[in-house]
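Holo prediction. Input below; ligand is iron/sulfur cluster.
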Amino acid sequence: MKKVFDRPQAMTEKQMHYCPGCTHGIIHRLLAEAIDELNVREKTIGVAPVGCAVLAYEYFNCDMQQAAHGRAPAVATGIKRTNPDNVVFTYQGDGDLASIGCAEIVHAAARGEKISTIFVNNAIYGMTGGQMAPTTLVGQTTTTSPYGRDSSHVGYPIQVSEMLATLQGAVYVARVSVHDVPHILKAKKAIKKALEIQIKGLGFSIVEVLSTCPTNWGKTPLDSLEWLQQNMLEYYPLGEYRTPEEGK
Amino acid sequence: MAKQLMKGNEAIGEAAITAGCRHFFGYPITPQNELPQYMSRRMPQVDGVFLQAESEVSAINMVYGAAGAGARVMTSSSSPGISLKQEGISYIAGAELPCVIVNIIRGGPGLGGIQPAQSDYLQATKGGGHGDYRLIVFGPASVQEMVDMTMEAFDIADYYRAPVLILGDGVLGQMMEPVEFNKPKSRELKPKDWATTGAAGRGPNIINSLAMQPEKLEEHNWRLQEKYKQIKENEQRFELYNCDDAELVLVAYGTTSRIVKSAVNQLREHGIKAGLLRPISLWPFPEKAFAQLPDSVKAFLAVEMSAGQMVEDVRLTVNGARPVEFFGRTGGMIPSPTEIIEKAKAVLGGDR
Ligand SMILES: Cc1ncc(C[n+]2csc(CCOP(=O)(O)OP(=O)(O)O)c2C)c(N)n1
Ligand code: SF4
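Structure of the complex:
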């Protein structure tokens, strides 16, 4: 029989700890496939965040460093400046990247740091129990916005891709989603492109991936995919916000 | 090698480069600015990397990344900046990464001032960041010592896979003295086969300080403590000056020890048997120095540019066997020989 689907080389066989229906696992796989296809597993160094993906170092079959909450871009900078020939990625949630690590990501992007960031936006803090994130939608209820996010009180969700796309050093900025198969395929393309741009030494690349958190959204996995489509896509439009062609 | 006149901060930079440091991440703060400035000039000349981070938080995390990737790496700052670096320092200690950190202390708390102080002693030697960890801390007293210790610090850091802190102050950072750069005898160092360099031909290397199971974390902590025990045994450094027949032993480190030394000389001229015990390693605190003191010692006097921090270690070590007194100035004020002498006489007078 012909084998048509297999575990990517860039993934370990470790069973993941993510909740059922959580799209973190899909995003891991896309990144691992991209690493395999570019044949760079043996020169890749990943940086795991604080958040649900804190254990990412157990799932990627490459060298990994675990970083403090939000500091992954700074850690990746230290790695890349030490080993410029390696492919360095950070994998970060929205609390990690857009809240505590906002300065780190903005400055890594502004410096044109030759790293790639996979930014998982699930509009909530997953790991700590569903608190409001900087990306939580207006009106969305979380454990710390129990009456719904009130913009007159806590302001508006940050559109990270739009914000980073204003920076010269950010060579590739794209927002994708993983709510259905066509979008998953597009997400894979963007992730691969981000790594390619790094390999070419063009500058900073980031792919924002809209993701679900069934557990903290209080929805079934299927309803979560639906909710993402109906609520997140409008405020977080998909697309390439900056490409190397534009950067010139 | 010929001696050259150099500012303390710059001498540290050159010493680091001599020791093979090729990565420096920092953020400006007085009174240590000459160090990053020097590195920004010198690093490109030696194919090294100087990067000004957006904050101290970022700088120390760049150090974490670079150290994990196998670099000889250094960062420097002054008190408020070191407070920000504590997060990263705890992670570096937890992940057992070697690096050198320089704190050129200024007066605090808060924004404080920009004049020299020794008020970060407790932060440096008792933790500063969260968790059960120790830093190896050296307190140089001259520009030459800053050079020698910085060079050795890189080897010590690599040897133990642990961060080493050079604790200076604004006086040492800013003063100029003649120095020479003699590379210290190298320790036998193991290859950094744990570093993240790409998993070609081997399994993945993981740099991490996370251990979710309490059993695992406790095991890790006891292993760290075992390492600290070794460091305590091997790395105590101190100077004893005029202590052979001393009745009063003044204890002081860094800049303060130089002032105390002249106070001791003047006390001796007045026929008072004073000596100086100068801790050079602040952690491990040189308990061995106290064991070498003669029975003639009647009392101790700790002198610091703080409201009394190292004195706690003196008291712990002396453990009630003799009275331990304290004299200190804070906020950037430097104790004068005259006031130290006065206090010393009072201590002895009270004892008689
Ligand atoms: C300095 C610090 N502050 C807070 C935390 C607690 N913490 C752990 S995960 C997390 C939020 C993570 O959310 P996000 O980045 O959105 O990732 P997700 O869990 O949703 O995937 C927080 C606040 C921490 N570990 N360190
Ligand atoms: S808490 Fe949410 S983000 Fe975290 S693993 Fe579960 S579903 Fe995924």
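Residues A 18-19, 22, 24, 52, 122, 126-127, 213-216 surround iron/sulfur cluster (ligand 2) (CB under 6 Å). That is the main takeaway for now.
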